[in-house]
């Protein structure tokens, strides 16, 4: 159960296809292994224990990720869209002695070495001064930094075994042999790293990589969705991984007449609660969407819905290597999990890990209700998970963002961003329709429509586009005060 073994099995077959500037280049398993060993030798001759890297979605990223494992070094992939402040924070926390980038970093001074992979990708290697060496947990192969709800990412330490265990379980659960997978999420996002690279390669498949700007991304946001659709049409993949925002994008295009490639067999969606109504809409439009659930502490995926055991309302069957229990509505997991948080106490593998997620479980299937910390208790003492009405509001693909509030208040309110093509009247009708599906205490009585979406740059979203509820509440404090004084819906 090794990615390197899978590359050996793909010795003469295309394992990775790189797309750049209207060109494509195929790399066999043998060609990838040659570059991995070349870089691993450089790492092995270095005194560095840990190596941080920040690259675009290219084969060079895969090479660095694998080479750290071959050289027995700790890999610290940093998201390409992290701000300079976040990147500096990660580098200060992680103890990496080397930092590798696909562009010169003037703030780090002169690079000590540059290497070119596949005669195309030039990488710049910087020596970092580490004030105090970090003691990593035994077996740490990767430290993935979650964006968190604050601006300071948290380092989750993972072993090779935990990552490959998830990848292998996914291969068995999904059951598609030799899949063609197109990576749409940044590779440092653990879900794409494990489920989008390791799992397809273990299944004898081929991974297609494209720079994020050619997929339509600017920073962490999708600014040119036409490019994303064009990439899917061009590659004709069998599998994709989406976050809810990308799912709503695909649905919007399909409603406008776009025909998804018939090659698509399986689209996993995760990262936030998705309503079953939205998934049903996607399937009606020939998008074979299946919801999953996971977290970095479990090396990405905990459960996944699949065609073999489909339940549209669920986040699927728990992967076989994970144990679960529920206490007071909260999910606890045990098994091959993370080793601990960087610079904190280790995680005891015999202990249950509290996920912070509210779920119900029927048989071995999970039904996600929302985050424990996003539980709203109204002034009438009613408990409402914010994600419940939010997921229903977002079932309209023209609505891109919805954040619900109401802690200690007599009714719920929301901040909403919808594309301009959706009129205020249509939005009002949609909200009436949604409220009809909710009990009175969970209905969103008033909302504020934004002229511009919430963004990471404003400090209102995490880097994986989850709302920073406290920051949003403070930003729109005057609006919320008006909600509970005035009778009408307010738009900006």
TrEMBL record:
Gene3D superfamilies assigned to the protein according to its UniProt record, in alphabetical order: N-terminal domain of ligase-like
Matching SUPFAM superfamilies: Acetyl-CoA synthetase-like (SSF56801)
PROSITE patterns for this protein: AMP_BINDING
Gene Ontology terms, MF aspect: medium-chain fatty acid-CoA ligase activity; o-succinylbenzoate-CoA ligase activity
EC number: 6.2.1.26
Pfam families for the chain: AMP-binding, AMP-binding_C_3
GO biological process terms, semicolon-separated: fatty acid metabolic process
Residue ranges of domain AMP-dependent synthetase/ligase in the record: 14-337
Keywords in alphabetical order: Ligase
Similarity-based family: Belongs to the ATP-dependent AMP-binding enzyme family.
The protein, known as: 2-succinylbenzoate--CoA ligase
Name of encoding gene: menE
